[in-house]
Amino acid sequence: MKSPINGLVDLMYIVVFGVKPYGVEKEQGIQPATRDEILHYYEVEYLACHHADPNVVLAGHSAATEGRTVAFENPLGIYIRSFARQLFLFQNMPVSDRWVRWSRGKPSIYQRLEFGPDDEEEIFLDDISILIGENKEPLTGGYQLLRHMEIGPLVLLSEPSAVTEQEWVRLTPYSGSIHCVKSEDCLSFRKLIHQYETAPKPNNS
Fold first, then answer.
1. Is the pTM of this model over 0.90?
2. What CA–CA distance (Å, rounded) separates 141 from 121?
3. C-alpha distances out from residue 135 to 14, 190, 205, Å
4. Cβ neighbours of residue 118 closer than 8 Å, sequence gap 6 or more
5. Measured distance CA(125)–CA(140) in Å, rounded
6. What b/e string do you get for 101-128 counting C-beta neighbours within 10 Å, with b at 16 or more?
C-alpha cells in the first residue's frame, strides 16, 4: 500500500482501496471512518494529492459500509463516462455534434475523444467558448476539456446487507486533516494551473 503511484493507475487503485467497511470507535459505537482517517492510517496521504478526486475512495467505502460487494465490471479499463458538451459554445450556441468525435470503444465506454472543427473549416479552437457559470472564456487547451469530463472504470455493486461486528476494519481515530496544498507535487501542479489561468487570453472580438 505504500508504493508511490500516480496517473490513471490511481483511479483503479483508489476505487478498490476504499471497498472495506473501515470504522472508528466513537461514544455512540463504531462509525464509518473519514477519507483522511483511512488514508492517514495506511500512510498513503499522497493519494489525496496525486488523484484527480481523492473522494473516490469514499464511494467504495460508502458501499462497503452498506454491506455491498464492489467489483470491476468487464471490460476492465478507464473510460470517458460523460462529457459536458453543452457547456462548449460556438457563436453562442452549443457546438455541433460532429465536433465531438468518439472512438476506441462504444457509447458510455469510449476511451478517445477528438474535439473541434474539421481541418477544412476556417474555425479555430479559440473561437469556441466555455460557459463558466454566467461567464464565458475561450477554449485554449486540453486542460479545459478534462475539467468537464467524468473518467473512471466500470464497477458493479451487490445488494446491501448488514455489516457484522467482525467485518468492520477498525482504524485509529484521526482528528487532523490532510493538507494537499502542502504536497510538493500539488505545489508544482498548482503553479502550472496558475500560469495557465493567468496567461493572456486570445481576443475573440
1. no
2. 19
3. 34, 23, 15
4. 98
5. 7
6. eeeeeeeebbeebebbbeeeeeeebebb
Q: What is the DSSP letter of 85?
A: G
**What distance in Å separates the CA atoms of residue 159 and residue 14, rounded to the nearest whole number?**
22
- List the helix and strand counts (H, then E) for the chain: 6, 13
CA atoms within 13 A on the CB side of 175: 1
55 vs 17, 35, 93, 126, CA distance in Å? 12, 7, 34, 33
In the DSSP assignment, the letter for residue 110 is: B
Residue 159 pLDDT: 95
Unique residue bearing C-alpha cell 501542479: 189
State the angle between helix axes of 8-17 and 56-65 in degrees (0 to 180), rounded to the nearest 10. Answer: 20
Question: Which amino acid is it at 39?
Answer: L
What is the mean pLDDT of the segment spanning 153-176?
A: 91
Q: What do you get for the CA distance between the two ends of the chain, in Å?
A: 52
Task: Using the structure block, give the residue that is written with the C-alpha cell 486533516.
Answer: 177
